[in-house]
Amino acid sequence: MDARTVTTGHTAGALTRRAASRLVARLPDLADRLTAEILSGDGAMRPPGLTDDLWDVCHIGLRHGIEAILDPSSRPDLSWARELGRRRAEQGLPLDQLLRSYRLAGRVFWESLVEVAAQQDPDQLPALAHHAVRVWQTIDQQSSVAAEAYRRTEFELLRRDEEQVQAIVDALLEGRGADGRLLAAATTVLGLPARGRFAVAVLRQDDALSRPVAGRPETAGGIRFLWRLRADARIAVVDLGDADLDDLAEVLRVHACHHAGLSPVVDSPADLGHARWLAELALRTCRSPRQEVARLDRRLPAALVVSQPELAEHLRRSVLDGLTALDPAKRGLLLETLDAWLECGGSATAAARRLYCHPNTVLNRLRHLERISGRSTSRPLDLVELVLARHALHRIDGNPA
Hints:
alpha+beta
């Protein structure tokens, strides 16, 4: 660096400091000008309540900017930038508008600096231009610090909001919905209607972790999900809107890899705790190695069995314990025939088509089962016991319930 460059730098610095010192008396006018600039144009800051302190913010920011020019060793402008970034994030002002205000502040400050220098030292204006880069570097530093504080605060606020959401969802799923304050929080924080159409879905945890992104839709098909993680399951509070349980089941078939249980529809967030228990009960009816999305309202006999395991085991022994004396292949054939006959609505003809045998063969197998169980498929009460005992046996065998 030659002597001429050093001299020019010193001259520019001195000129900039002289001009900056003269701006102190004009601070109110500069704050007026910057406020007007920020409130005008396409990127104007107009959210309600955020303009109340705008003039004070402009005045303080410009004053700290002048102080940074007069004494570069002290940087109150950076402390103020951090404070402003934090404040604007808490107020919900978009980051791009905060950065826009810094660009406008830089322009107002520089133009005012040039105006003062032109009035007092017009012959030295070329030297002032030499210092422009340093001035704009200072403004860039301020905006960068403000942006970093904004993003850090925004992250903390999001984490705090997420923790609040999780706490409310947990409370609802735990059955504490009778608390009026909790219901109010569910409507304001979670955005759930006080009356609507809700359900709970429970997915096995090993399934939910197999596809963590695809397995957790937040919205799909007009259905909204609020997910919570448990040790052995992933649970969703579901706001159905205009959708029904069949729509919900289809969404879960796409996003889940394995079993899911669905509660019946409830009309208030206060009922979600009970709905959770019913959804878990529905999930416990799933036994197939293939994916099942179990609606409780379509699995009531199986759900009854899994909800009362001791009574179900007593019923199984009373009705079907005689099957244990049979050859496993024979026992399996009788149970397969019973399943087909039940699934075909009690039609021996339809069951025979499914089993590739004659209808009389189906009837003969059913008669054999009647002799072993002591229950007749033609008597309604006997048939109820036979069906429930069959579900209890499914539960032991690990086959579809």
